[in-house]
Design goal:
Radius of gyration: 31 Å
Strand content: under 5%
Oligomer: single chain
Helix content: over 70%
Shape: rod-shaped
Order of helices and strands: H
Number of strands: 0
Structural class: mainly alpha
Distance between the termini: 99 Å
């Protein structure tokens, strides 16, 4: 059985204000975290594109070297 807890109204309001601030900061943190994830996804996409481009260039260089080494 729980007993009632009496709190002064002023103290209750201060606690409620503090809780509201914490909730706001939590929401702000969630927004920042979401943006970080979006940037990470964009970065991974860009890195993948760069890797593909490097592979394509490497293949072209290999083809050029192969063509240059064949006697005519």
């Amino acid at each position: 059985m729980s007993t009632p807890v009496f709190v002064k109204v002023e103290r209750y309001k201060k606690v409620q204000t503090a809780i509201d601030r914490v909730k706001k900061r939590l929401e702000d943190a969630k927004i920042v975290f979401k943006r970080i994830n979006e940037l990470k996804t964009e970065e991974e996409h860009e890195l993948g594109a760069w890797q593909s481009e490097l592979a394509r260039i490497e293949n072209k260089i290999s083809n050029i070297q192969s063509a240059l080494s064949k006697p005519r």
